[in-house]
Amino acid sequence: MDQVRSEQARRRREERTALATPQAEQLSHAADADPHQDRDDSLALLFPCRHPALSEPSRTALTLRAVGGLSTSQIAAAFLAPKATTPQRISHAKQSLKTSATPLRMPQPAEQAKQLAAVLHVLYLIFNEGYTATDSTDLTPPALSTEAIRLTRLLHHLLPDHTETAGLLALMLLTDARRPARTGADGDLMPLAEQDRTRWDRPLIAQGLALIGDTLPRGQVGPYQLQAAIAAVHDEAEHVDATDWPQILALYDLLELLAPNPMVTLNRAVAVAMVHGPAAGLDLLAALESDRRTARHHRLLASRAHFLEQLGDHHAAAHAYREAARRTTSAPERRHLTTRAARLTPGQD
């Protein structure tokens, strides 16, 4: 940690240089760079945390805590796991490191290649927590997302030909570009459909589109590239009605085949509802109700409420919105969901 702090001045100089250098020039120089020189210490810390004595979930949890600085509730939300199990997982991981004969160290280049997917996953989770805080009075803590983007830029600079690193960076840029419009003047959450798109960060969108446009044609498509492609379709639409939902649904179909996950299924249900109607979306949600990770998740309940509202069942929709509000630990999300319920049942508390 002392080494990390001592490098802050160097990082600021590098960031100023990066901001002053056109992206195309950065990428062209990156191919000639020595991937073993000029490493950022924060990025280097991600690799030693992949200790062989730890299970994969424990490695990720410990890295999120030690490097990302996430709380136990934030880590539990990232894993879709009960909050009570997270401290036990981290404590067990620390104890395993103390008793292990293998010291924490920077892995050799061959080992780094094998661990890269896990490092990308950690950066992805840190970014997500910075984009929508799990437990906060504010919707987003931008510092987390900014740090995740900074580290992913550096990783992409070191590995310019790794398509999933480029895909993750593109996803972060295309998503973070919407941050200025995600809250109104009073700090309340603004859903994507209601955002003022003139407030989106167009230079970030251009960077993200250039990255994913260069990466997808290579034919080595992974989950981050598919998510970036979905984000690109949203960002390219001048207004919500211009969104190409059939294309988004097709991309989610591929993503669910390539990397099945309850949250992917939930997002796909939204795309299905936009293409085939809210009743079709509700049918897909039924499969998630038997999954203990998502059965009472506030996003599942909020999606159900939205579909019911579209079908005209305002009483059931209001109930689902209130239940979702009770389940979320984000104050802005809770206010938004409570407001939606109140609009459907005027005169009721």
From TrEMBL:
Skewed-composition ranges (Basic and acidic residues): 1-17
Domain of life per record: Bacteria
Sequence segments annotated as region (Disordered): 1-38
Gene3D superfamilies linked: Winged helix-like DNA-binding domain superfamily/Winged helix DNA-binding domain
Pfam families: DUF6596 (PF20239)
Phylogenetic lineage: Bacteria, Bacillati, Actinomycetota, Actinomycetes, Kitasatosporales
Stated name of the protein: Putative RNA polymerase sigma factor
DUF6596 domain ranges (all copies): 116-213
